[in-house]
Amino acid sequence: MAAYYCVVFWGLVETMAPPGERGRTQGWELGCGRVCGALEFKTDFVRTEVLLMMTDFNNLGTRVKEVEDSLKEVKDDSAILKEQVCELKATTAILEAKAEVLE
């Protein structure tokens, strides 16, 4: 499973990532890429290790779709329940009218 990182940094920064993803830059930079495991950022002043959560964004996208589908089902169920409430109110009114006739 591949993880993605996205980090904003300032200064002369060397990203220690898999080959092909390494580089040095000066200034504000947005570094994005795919890695597995831990990612190190080394600047002239500090050395910070950033542990990455192993997140598969394809699975995340699938999960978002599942949640959207569930929300649609809840909205559909809500509409059905509203119709049933209207039917129950109508039935109640009919039964009350019949009860008055019987009294």
In brief:
Residues 57-84 form a coiled coil. Helices cover 45% and strands 31% of the residues.
Describe the structure.
The longest helix has 46 residues, at 57-102. Mean pLDDT is 63; it is low at 1-14 and 24-55. The chain folds into two domains: 3-51, no CATH class; 60-103. It is built from one helix and six strands, in the order ββββββα. It has a four-stranded antiparallel β-sheet with strand order 3-2-5-6, with no helix packed on it. It is rod-shaped, with a radius of gyration of 30 Å. The chain is 45% helix and 31% strand. The chain has one helix at residues 57-102, and strands spanning 3-9, 13-16, 23-25, 29-35, 38-43, 47-51. The protein is of the alpha+beta class.
Short descriptors:
103 residues, alpha+beta, 2 domains, two-stranded antiparallel ribbon, 1 helix, 45% helix, disordered N terminus
